[in-house]
Amino acid sequence: MAERRRLHLGAFMRPTTIHTGAWRYPGAYPDANFNFAHLKRFAQTLEAAKFDAFFMADHLAVLNMPVEALKRSHTVTSFDPFVLLPALAAVTERIGLVATASTTFEQPFHVARRFASLDHLSGGRAGWNIVTTSNPDAALNFGLDEHMEHDERYRRAREFYDVVTGLWDSFADDAFVRDVESGIFFDPDKMHVLGHKGPYFSVRGPLNVARPVQGWPVIFQAGASEAGRQLAAETAEVVFAGFSGLEDGRKVYADIKGRLDRLGRSRDHLKIMPGAFVVVGDSVEEAREKRARLDSLVHYDSAIASLSIALGHDVSKLDPDAPLPDLPQTNASHTGRERAIELARRENLTVRQLAQRLGGYSGLAFVGTAQTIADEMEEWLVTEGSDGFNIMFPFLPEGLDDFVAKVVPELQRRGLFRTDYEGTTLRDHFGLPRPGNRFFAAP
Amino acid sequence: MAERRRLHLGAFMRPTTIHTGAWRYPGAYPDANFNFAHLKRFAQTLEAAKFDAFFMADHLAVLNMPVEALKRSHTVTSFDPFVLLPALAAVTERIGLVATASTTFEQPFHVARRFASLDHLSGGRAGWNIVTTSNPDAALNFGLDEHMEHDERYRRAREFYDVVTGLWDSFADDAFVRDVESGIFFDPDKMHVLGHKGPYFSVRGPLNVARPVQGWPVIFQAGASEAGRQLAAETAEVVFAGFSGLEDGRKVYADIKGRLDRLGRSRDHLKIMPGAFVVVGDSVEEAREKRARLDSLVHYDSAIASLSIALGHDVSKLDPDAPLPDLPQTNASHTGRERAIELARRENLTVRQLAQRLGGYSGLAFVGTAQTIADEMEEWLVTEGSDGFNIMFPFLPEGLDDFVAKVVPELQRRGLFRTDYEGTTLRDHFGLPRPGNRFFAAP
């Protein structure tokens, strides 16, 4: 009998919680995003729970939102991933460390060098989340008046990836002999000068860092659009996508794994890990109350303005504590409008509750006990909706501590999650192969 | 009576030792540049000795040298400063952490954000060594066929500095109120949108990081050329220059401090710290023997080829173990040629010894006992040759451990060096003022 498939768990830690009301939750650390002592404690707790990875998204600008909402946002200040993750590498031993780096606003030589350095420093625990940066405000911080258009960003990303992986292969794995007697530090026949010239980049190389411990750091991608999914199928080893529910998840899962088949890649060599917001209670009711309390901390004035835009109808004059009435048809985006109305009906939400839910976090969520959450995760795994989850904690530290103390042991009891690390590298945790060097045969 | 001036000490740690034979020295760690366990141990040892700063130079390419020399060089693989220094920040508490970042091949938004992040993460210990990158091979790794010319690099550097410091001032020091009750995370009236548009950069801002602990991280520069010295006088707080000897040092010291006078800056607000290679023995003779042994580990074939170039005369056919004979006049650079001949005469070196000295390290060096080294350092301080030194260790760990165990206590005994840190930030260590925010009055 084949070994049972197990879940992979990442922690989505930038922002430490995606929920806009979280910093006001009782017992929360309002500065969790930007206090190294807290972040160190979180990473060590996640490592003790045997998480695969600590995952850092990134933004290259203060988020473009109205000032009334912005001034309430705990995301406005946070560490650069390439400062936080090396620091966490120094105070952890096994957990993977995944940093986002933009192919639109970075240079491939810098990116190759930083990830190679992090991989060496951490003993093979680095992962690169490739993003093309969709926030047009970022362009204004990098000398571009107009944001690069979507398809061009993806063409550039593909070439960027080719350059970075080529630079990682600058040295054979056994190039550094360090022979004190003869005085030979490395074998120059085992150094490759890349000499890349393409439409977007001209990069000579070689990299001034030895080949990474993992050969290449693990490649992550979000991969939502058509171009994004294809880039992911060609290059990614972990896809971290935002799925709205199991039905949607199974569709995307089948689509991406199907692309692997057509490319001749093994289905096991790309893991699909949707983001999931998890609220744990000792009863389902308690979990729902926690979520309702959290949502209630979202500022109503900002939330109702956003809801009016989503519905294409000014709902700010309605009774906030009554159910959402039937609304006339409008020109608002159908998807957003229908999703909001459907959510209000399904959970029987008042106007205020609906506004605050959408203003806080409204994507994929598991809200319940350790048992019901493990049930849902198991269903996703067994029915091929995902290979695991990138967990978003509702508030810190309580939401993280609850997940680790309650959900992880339940998953372990069911044989759905490891009880200890079985290897030392991030590739080991995911069961991913170590890439060969394109320029040198294995020693 | 005014308090006695004291020395400032930095450790020049990239490469961990600049001497090309160092990795072959008995007891040395051949991989010291690239082994985090060693580097952590070095940083903690330097902190226990109360060093001001751990300083990391940088190269954005494998050094351009003939392959016969390159394959013997321990510098070919080393960590990116922005991976190593955050990791060291997590395992130290007081020592300053100075990273080199190039204004020619980086973007100001990234640089501002990384240094601000490092300053917060380390509790105010970050320093930025501004370089314009003189290695033309670096340009080839960043899509430029030709290296930017010297004066243009300096004009770009000056604008880069203005943008970075402007981004550091994006928020008033008291902008982040995090008022849980009202839900206000920060005061938007205390956020400044930079809106910089200049010849080289267009950067909107604001930075997505709170103002650094130090206001601005401490600014370091090498400042050797005329343009470099002027940029240093206008912007730098520590100048790390390469001086050949005390006479040269006093000239450059007077020149740079004079520029400060003319700019209306206090002489105390820019510290001059030349690099100094220090070999410690229990007797002067023992120290000289250590250095001779170290020099003897430089590969003769590479060294004699370089010496021939420096002298403008093929000396490879001469008896390597005889003194350097008189040589006919040539077209070789007078400075290099005369310096080599003068060195051979002064120290009575054979051809081999001269070649290996120049191939290893031939700049400012203090070779002697703790007493003679402290005498020399004191003379530099008292006669205004420098405000301290950036120490280059001849080999690791012995050279570093000897300096800390023998020279530091002798300097402390004389009252020339602190016996404990008196503050927590790098500015505190140097006695530098915290810059005001150009957009907001102090709270």
TrEMBL record, chains A, B:
The keyword Oxidoreductase applies. CDD domains: Nitrilotriacetate_monoxgenase. The keyword Membrane does not apply. Belongs to the NtaA/SnaA/DszA monooxygenase family. Residues 23-381 form the Luciferase-like domain. Pfam families: Bac_luciferase. Coiled coil: none annotated. GO terms for molecular function: monooxygenase activity; oxidoreductase activity, acting on paired donors, with incorporation or reduction of molecular oxygen. FMN binds at D58, T100, H150, Y154, S225. Keywords: Flavoprotein, FMN, Monooxygenase, Oxidoreductase. This is LLM class flavin-dependent oxidoreductase. It comes from Segnochrobactrum spirostomi.
